[in-house]
Amino acid sequence: MNCVKSYQSVEELIKKSRFIGIITPCADEREALQQLRQLHAEHANATHIAFAYRLKTEQGIHYRFHDAGEPTGTAGKPIYQHLDGNDLINVLAVVIRYYGGIKLGAGGLTRAYGNTAKLALDAAEIYPYIEMARLHLTLDYPQLQPLEYQLKKLGGQIIQQDFAEQIRLQIQLPAAQTEALLSGFPGALRT
Predict the structure, then answer these.
(1) What is the C-alpha to C-alpha distance for residues 158 and 170, in angstroms, rounded to an integer?
(2) CA-CA distance, 149 to 63, in Å (whole number)?
(3) Residue 108 near residue 68, CB atoms below 8 Å
(4) Cα separation, 141 vs 45, whole angstroms
(5) What's the pLDDT at 38?
(6) Residue 161's closest CA among 171, 152, 151?
(7) CB within 10 Å: which end of the chain, N or C, has fewer?
(8) Is the dihedral of CA 107, 89, 25, 153 positive or negative?
(9) Which element (helix H / strand E) includes 131?
(10) Spans of the chain, pLDDT less than 50
(11) Which of 61, 128, 70 is nearest to 79 (CA)?
């Protein structure tokens, strides 16, 4: 599985119609829908705003695509096929069309939406998805500095810490590194 690093936008003119392709990361469906609302506000005069998203959830891969008034299967699905084909997750792809007066036909629309989404993907920085795990630990004070050092080596970080008689921590690190971290701190209590 792969993800995109940041927002990317491209523009293309096809038979006088202006197509804007956007690819952006999103953590969940709420964030994807929020970004779509923002794009609808920014491009209120656009003829069509077709989209697709693909998200990793605890129930598996969740996806949706929408043709935005174009003939069925000519806009959202070609966009989605590029997300699926590149095994991208936690991503929203949008193609905004400003109609230029020349009809493209079903095949032309499918190519225009698909190619614009592909151009946006080609411009985006793609990286492998790393499953992250969150742990709650209770440590003695002398263990904190070695834990911080080990976390840094394993690509993790402390998210929250509470100092009392002992230190209670919430940490995040790549799931594959969980056992390596815990084996180095046998006295730590998982809470």
Answers:
(1) 6
(2) 38
(3) no
(4) 59
(5) 95
(6) 171
(7) C
(8) negative
(9) none
(10) none
(11) 70
Instruction: Say which amino acid occupies 159.
Output: I
- DSSP, residue by residue, 15-71: TTEEEEEEEEE-SSHHHHHHHHHHHHHHTTT-SEEEEEEEEEETTEEEEEEE-TTSS
Give SS3 for 110.
helix
Question: In whole angstroms, how far apart are CA 13 and each of 17, 39, 98, 115, 164?
Answer: 6, 19, 10, 12, 62
Q: In this structure, are residues 87 and 121 in contact, taking their beta carbons and an 8 Å threshold?
A: no
Looking at this protein, which amino acid is placed at residue 41? Answer: A
Cβ-based neighbours of 12, under 8 Å, separated by 6 or more: 18, 19, 21, 112, 115, 116, 119
What is the spatial distance between Cα 20 and Cα 26, in angstroms, rounded to a whole number?
19
Residue 148 amino acid letter: E
d(CA 64, CA 86): 16
